[in-house]
Amino acid sequence: MQTMGQALSREKTKKGVVGMADTDEILGIDVGGSGIKGAPVNVQTGELTGERLRIKTPQPATPEAMTDTMAEIAKHFNWKGKIGVGFPAVVKQGVMYTAANVDPSWIGTNGQALIEAKTGCPVSIINDADAAGLAEMRFGAGKGKMGSVMMVTLGTGIGVGYYVDGRLVPNTELGHLIVDGKDIETRASAGVREQKDLSWKKWGKLLTEYFQELERLLWPDLFIIGGGVSDEFDKLAPHIEIHTPMVPAQMLNLAGIVGAALAAEGEAQRETSKSKVAKAKATGGEQG
Question: What CATH class is the domain 4-131+254-270?
């Protein structure tokens, strides 16, 4: 059910207001192996200020084809401001170092530069699981939680966002742990469960092995479970046997979009701080 604020904001979107001047609004884009989703986000409240648009991920999922789709989303919202993107890869300084469930040609591609060239907007790009976790830590199940928290997204693959005292440890790729000799994502993702038609009990047994390995390595204080399964958490939870408390995500399928926008907000704030420091140093040098 949409809130009154969301309903009013959607009217604004229809009138072409979104993306023009409100610095609290950032376009969030969540990139997945099956779909690319986007919407403007109020980063102060975590609410979408326009109706979410989803476009099927092009196949093959090459840099050119996928960034064309992202540009189409920006154009749909007549977007002129900051864009945040959550992408299924290790991302450092805008460059992709891995490619999970997308074309291998992404490896070594500067995704940030490519999206900026096609949209004409400043872009921030972050690992998709890290993005989803940012949203949960700010507005969802992780709000106010200290210690170590793991946001585990069970989807086409397995993504993990890792947070210590609320601060992100980026690009952990803990969704690719080797358990029983195999990448756990190839054994226990929601995509594999669907392909093999696994029962909740059998899927829970596989995930128990995975979560126990995470416990053995890092001893987290809380697991937050995201992805479509968060809607059916009560069916899965009884079949996972671990010591660490586990709760369903609250942001549901909006976490990736909201988190991508939050990542862009954080980068913008860091750039502003750097600019102020540089200006202060320059002014001090002139006075000296």
Answer: alpha beta
